[in-house]
Write a structure and sequence with these properties.
Number of helices: 2
Strand order of the largest sheet: 1-2-3
Number of domains: 2
Helix content: 25-40%
Largest sheet: 3 strands, antiparallel
Number of strands: 3
Structural class: alpha+beta
Order of helices and strands: EEEHH
């Protein structure tokens, strides 16, 4: 996949077929006030032994499923 554009004009295009697979919909777009948000759990792991139980991929799946179910209702 290749990302093009920014904000509401951002799309994800499949490299081989050039098919647009993801497009931002203003209905679901949530602008943020911060320019960049990054997280790193290594300090928590080092200092208190905490490790995340959910991977980023799992978190995205959970969030997407929740949003889709919420949209049905």
């Amino acid at each position: 996949m290749a990302c093009e554009g920014k904000g509401l004009d951002e799309i994800e295009i499949e490299k081989d077929s050039k098919t647009v697979r993801v497009r931002v919909d203003e209905k679901y777009f949530i602008p943020i006030e911060a320019d960049l948000l990054l997280g790193n759990s290594s300090k928590a792991e080092k200092e208190v032994g905490w490790k995340p139980k959910t991977s980023l991929k799992e978190l995205v799946k959970m969030t997407t499923e929740f949003d889709l179910e919420n949209e049905k209702n």
